[in-house]
């Protein structure tokens, strides 16, 4: 193995990291050792770890719940431990859930994008821990789309939500542990980070030697994670983001799209590291279930040059200009703010697209805030770039 995740580092000397504390474990199927043993199972059987409770984020501790569905609390059938839901009636551990817990251990693979909900779960756990005098230990994992590239606007005050709580860019370029360090500047919980061994900032996940475990049902591969920071915007418009297909977030489309025209225009832009293929697909579930869609597949041909957020904005801009009567931003559903604006962390992107602002101008408007963010994140970086 080139890289060892934080859980393997901790398991070498658990008492040095955890003492004799009662442990609450926040995890999901991505919480595995380098040899693919579940962190939950490894903790449960380890004689030096006193595991008393488990906490499950969106999709559940064992990963069996689909996107956006509430996760029920239950008893884990393999260990008999209580599993408390952090994606249902409660988004943070309550005082009752934390009875017998001295330290919360967080072991979940992030995907490198601001709107992935596990960062919000981590935040709420840290807030609850600070409130109830519980320590937090983050078992670090790689940023799967590398820790060098940063892209996108900073989330604005007033647009905080479970798909974005912090003033960071869409592609933030941090590991989970580094994110926790940055977030803790405000929360001030008692935080420890168990770092990775052997990871460099330029590493993509498939360069770590670690097996890929999909972080959620619709993020099946590193290819999906690569495009996700830009194509997730399609959750907020009346087209399919490819859920219900074998290529979620790589397939984009709707019944009303002229796929040849859209693919031709996108390829004509000459965007770095990416090409577009006109395609057809029929989602088996979710939006446009059992309905043929026309659209494009996003093919990344050089991921180091590819700019997912900029590409996503180009896809939206081109589609809206080609289909002005059909293209719509979805109306609010579960709360007063539009989902698109929550993903974007602002209403400015939607307004720019409605006004046909050139994408280069939109992206250029983010430069100053990105520079401020890069300066701020420097003191939280735990890993170097290789020589």
Please give a structural write-up:
The chain contains twelve helices and ten strands. It has 387 residues and is an alpha/beta fold. It has two domains: 6-215 and 376-380, Rossmann fold (3-Layer(aba) Sandwich); 222-356, Aspartate Aminotransferase, domain 1. Helix 4 packs across helix 5 (176-187), helix 6 (222-231) crosses helix 8 and helix 7 crosses helix 8 (308-322). The longest helix is centred in the first third of the chain and has 15 residues, at 118-132. It is globular, with a radius of gyration of 21 Å.
**Unreliable segments of 5+ consecutive residues:** none
Helix content class: 25-40%
The helix/strand order is HHEHEEEEHEHEHEHEEHHHHH
Q: Give a quick account of the main beta sheet: strands, pairing sense, barrel closure.
A: 7 strands, mixed
Overall form: globular
**Number of domains as seen in the coordinates:** 2
């Amino acid at each position: 193995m080139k890289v060892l995740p934080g859980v393997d580092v901790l398991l070498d000397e658990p008492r040095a990291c955890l003492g004799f504390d009662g442990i609450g474990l926040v995890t999901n199927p991505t919480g595995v050792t380098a040899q693919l043993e579940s962190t939950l199972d490894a903790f449960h059987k380890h004689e030096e770890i006193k595991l008393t409770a488990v906490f499950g984020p969106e999709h559940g501790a064992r990963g069996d719940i689909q996107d956006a569905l509430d996760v029920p609390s239950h008893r884990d059938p393999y260990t008999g431990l209580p599993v408390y839901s952090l994606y249902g009636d409660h988004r943070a551990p309550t005082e009752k859930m934390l009875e017998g817990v001295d330290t919360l251990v967080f072991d979940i693979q992030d995907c490198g994008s601001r709107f992935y909900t596990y960062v919000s779960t981590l935040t709420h756990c840290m807030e609850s821990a600070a409130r109830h005098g519980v320590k937090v230990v983050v078992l670090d994992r790689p940023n799967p789309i590398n820790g060098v590239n940063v892209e996108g606007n900073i989330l604005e005050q007033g647009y905080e939500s479970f798909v974005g709580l912090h003033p960071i860019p869409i592609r933030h370029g941090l590991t989970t542990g580094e994110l926790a360090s940055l977030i803790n500047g405000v929360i001030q919980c008692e935080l420890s980070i168990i770092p990775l061994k052997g990871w460099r900032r330029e590493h993509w996940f498939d360069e770590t030697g670690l097996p890929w475990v999909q972080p959620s049902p619709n993020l099946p591969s590193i290819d999906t994670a690569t495009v996700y920071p830009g194509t997730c915007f399609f959750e907020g418009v009346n087209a399919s983001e490819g859920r219900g297909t074998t290529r979620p977030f790589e397939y984009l489309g709707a019944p009303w799209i002229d796929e040849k025209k859209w693919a031709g225009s996108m390829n004509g832009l000459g965007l770095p590291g990416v090409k577009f293929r006109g395609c057809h697909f029929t989602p088996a579930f979710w939006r446009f279930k059992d309905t043929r869609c026309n659209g494009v597949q996003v093919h990344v041909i050089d991921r180091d040059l590819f700019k997912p957020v900029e590409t996503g904005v180009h896809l939206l801009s081109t589609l809206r200009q080609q289909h002005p009567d059909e293209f719509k931003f979805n109306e609010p559903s579960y709360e007063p703010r539009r989902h698109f604006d929550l993903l974007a962390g602002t209403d400015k992107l939607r307004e720019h697209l409605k006004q046909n602002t050139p994408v280069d101008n939109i992206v250029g408007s983010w430069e100053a805030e990105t520079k401020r963010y890069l300066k701020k994140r420097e003191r939280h970086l735990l890993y170097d770039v290789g020589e």
